[in-house]
Amino acid sequence: MKDVMDFTYFLPTKIIFGAGKINEIGDLAKGVGKKALVVTGGKSAKSTGLLDKVTKAFEKNGIKYVHFDKIVPNPLSTTVDEGAKIAKDEKCDFVIGIGGGSPIDSAKMIAVVAKSGGNCWDYTNVGGGKVPTDALPIIAIPTTHGTGTEADPFAVVTNPKTNEKIGVGFDLIFPRISIVDPELMISLPPNQTASTGMDAFYHAIESYVNLNHQPTSDLLALEAISLINQYLPIAYRDGKNIEARTALAWASTAAGICETLSGCIANHSLEHPVSGHYNVTHGVGLCATGPALFEYILPHVKERLAKVALTMGAPDSITDTEELAHLSIELIRRLQKSVDLDVSLSKLGVERSKIKQLASDAMRTMGGLIEVTPGNLKIEDLEKIYERSF
């Protein structure tokens, strides 16, 4: 406990977890408001029947709704502004995000802009740093086991004019209620199973080595790492395995709580410019840069990476901290390979000539996460990590 000096614990979200819990949406929403803006992507919520289930539950409970389905992967700030205008014009009194991180993050920022005014980009650190004064209540229904946004006060948006992808965080955008139902994740195809599962993995491991780590996030991070290491390959091969989906759903939520309590580190700073400029899937981008980052900072986090290795199944007979720390990198690569995410920046189409620009963008837009990364990283270090990721 010598490195735990002080911390803050705050998690106001009511999390409803379990198979079949989506059936409670009508009663739960009735206590939040009378008219909802339902935010989704263009296809999956409709094709799976989830949207119909939610809206029928609303109708049964006398809740009116407006459907906004223009959210795309790596959601755009301009789309958030469009959704906020609809929420305001239609006098919606709460927002519900259904889907992966993109719809739920968008719902969060729609809730802010609809009540606090301005444009979405005004609330980013490079767009003005505006702080919201109010937000509509938010309900989150995740259909992927990746972002953890159902348990955190963060959202990520991309400016389509500059391709800058930035995370924002405000207590006002904690969901009021989150329904985490593993049955909703059974329809995830293998590629999304892999990418969202690895997204959650990096939330967990990044929070575990974050300079601001704390007791609760440490416990949950190791729990999430263990579950993802065990169950992600199973769900990747057999998407209908409800035990695996349940384990991964909890791992994602647990990792989201870790984000809330401790936060991510430079891997997310490194990845955001990649997906911002090249429209790469976020979890895939994290896999391209993650092993190189942890290899680079290994001298500063040996004890913690040694614990990660043991959590991921390293033999108890290995007791040397340095050996275990190096083994953790190998085990991370092995996990990624098991779900066909043995990727590099070159495989993702990133150009080496862009390294300096990517490093500059990472430092400028997501420098806060770099500050809490062990090793006192500078922009030159980011360039070296990018180079190693090719």
Name the poorly predicted regions.
none
Could you say which structural class the secondary elements and strand pairing correspond to? Answer: alpha/beta
- Which strand order does the major sheet show? 1-8-5-4-2-3
Shape: globular
User: Quick one: biggest sheet?
Assistant: 6 strands, parallel
What name goes with the CATH superfamily of the largest domain? Dehydroquinate synthase-like - alpha domain
The secondary-structure element order is: EHEHHEHEHEEEEHHHHHHHHH
In DSSP terms (H or I, runs of 4 or more residues), the helix count works out at 14
What percent of residues adopt helix (DSSP H or I)? 40-55%
Mean pLDDT figure: 95
Classified by CATH, the class of the largest domain is Mainly Alpha
CATH topology of the largest domain: Dehydroquinate synthase-like, alpha domain
In whole angstroms, the N-to-C terminal distance is: 38 Å
The overall number of domains is: 2
CATH architecture of the largest domain: Up-down Bundle
Number of strands: 8
User: Radius of gyration from the CA trace?
Assistant: 20 Å
Give the amount of beta strand, in percent: 5-15%
